[in-house]
């Protein structure tokens, strides 16, 4: 029997803020095996959590900001091939937009260098540093007004109940 292929499920937070005339987005700089990279607050779906719980957790861990998702911007797939190892991973990303309601004084996840606010133009200008080719597509969809209601997603209670 062959092994069943499964994509790696991830979430990402698109967090805008108006800073005077500037529309800025919350981003992170992180260390990766390929060097320092730029990303949205993003990460893997963990066992026993919904997609919404995952994006709230990841945003807190990576930026120390309390995130409230308001809509699903889209679902995205990409394949990453590590230039170092040649390993292939297909990512299935669920991108949410929302707002931050508080910033906390806490350490950031291991490997996260800093959280920063950048304009779309600034993000566009440093594509060589993007961790994922999906960063721009998610932002472009957000800027185009693409939104789906959160109740489009359903998580059965059996997912969030721990077996322990």
Automatic annotation (TrEMBL):
InterPro entries found in the cross-reference section: NUDIX_hydrolase-like_dom_sf (IPR015797), NUDIX_hydrolase_dom (IPR000086), NudJ (IPR033713)
Record flagged with keyword Magnesium: yes
Domain spans labelled Nudix hydrolase: 4-141
Classification via PROSITE patterns: NUDIX (PS51462)
Keyword tags: Hydrolase, Magnesium
Coiled coil (UniProt feature): none
Enzyme category, top tier: hydrolase
Assigned EC number: 3.6.1.-
Cofactor needs: Mg(2+)
GO molecular function: nucleoside diphosphate phosphatase activity; ribonucleoside triphosphate phosphatase activity; thiamine diphosphate phosphatase activity
Family, similarity comment: Belongs to the Nudix hydrolase family. NudJ subfamily.
Subunit comment: Monomer.
Protein name as catalogued: Phosphatase NudJ
């Amino acid at each position: 029997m062959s092994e069943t292929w499964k994509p790696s499920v991830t979430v990402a937070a698109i967090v805008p803020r108006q800073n005077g005339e500037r529309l800025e987005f919350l981003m992170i700089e992180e260390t990766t095996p390929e060097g320092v990279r730029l990303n949205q607050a993003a990460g893997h779906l963990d066992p026993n959590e919904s997609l919404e719980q995952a994006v709230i957790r990841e945003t807190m861990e990576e930026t120390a900001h309390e995130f409230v998702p308001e809509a699903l911007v889209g679902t995205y797939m990409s394949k990453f091939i590590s230039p170092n190892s040649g390993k292939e991973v297909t990512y299935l990303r669920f991108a949410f937009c929302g707002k931050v309601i508080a910033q906390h004084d806490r350490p950031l996840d291991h490997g996260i260098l800093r959280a920063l606010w950048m304009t779309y133009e600034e993000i566009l200008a440093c594509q060589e540093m993007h961790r994922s080719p999906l960063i721009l597509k998610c932002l472009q969809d957000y800027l185009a007004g693409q939104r789906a209601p959160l109740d489009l997603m359903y998580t059965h209670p059996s997912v969030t109940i721990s077996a322990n």
